[in-house]
Amino acid sequence: MTVPGSGMAAPASSSLLAGFEYGQMDVEGVMVNHAIAGSGSPLLLLHGYPENHLMWRYVAPALAEDHTVVVADLRGYGDSGKPAPDAAGLVYSKRSMASDQAGLMRRLGFAQFDLVGHDRGARVAHRLVLDHPDAVSRLAVLDIVPTRHVLRNVTRAMATAYYHWFFLALLNGVPEHMIAADPGFWVRSLIGPLLGPGASIEQPVMDDYIRCFTDLRTIAGSCADYRAAASTDLIHDEESAAAGQKIECPVLALWGTQAFVGRNYEPASVWAEYASHVRGSALPTGHFLPEEAPDLVSAALRDFLG
Which residues are identified as catalytic? Predict the structure, then answer.
């Protein structure tokens, strides 16, 4: 199978998302891997760490019944481009990653679209709405509160549950070296504890998540992503807050009752400090809502998106 119009082989994950047409789009020099299906108003879905677009494998087809759904791999993840990190933390800033996705949608012909993000994808989505407010009609964020709030309220519980935030941000090459030694162990050991009780991810999908982390460029890019969160992204977020900038489009916050966000924050209240029109709902899941409760997530998104 080839990617239409590219002459390139389709990514290995394409067989796990039936009915979607894959493509590779060059956006300002970064190739963005994506898949598209459906008809109706455009909708972009962004994944979290340490996964790729396949995390939407149940939700995306359901939403494609009413929307033109685009699922994309973030810069540095999946089968998207993986530019070398820079010392200033700009290459993997959420601003740069958001620009990729806004550019992808423009190149696909969608000047305005709805946006849903989980985990890192939700952080990219938050920055995308701030930097490109006219591009997004509605925003849904899954199982996060804003990065600025997290880093301004670090507790022992947060540092323990999200130890990888600090591990991946190390600058001494240790995280890259240790993850490369056994990427399968790393991906499984991170995902497993964040799943709700009794939840699991089928082996072919887990294998694809691990496949991506056998690429040293994915490891380097994802570490740079977390380094940016604690430095460049935080600067950008503080600048936005100081300027009084808030999200003006409607926002839906979803979170898992069995996950750290649901147990330790009041997500809807936190998001109300960053957005003008927020509604929120808890679901009986761990961190990976779209994989643990796809029917509930699809229903909540359908109700929000219309």
Answer: 119, 287
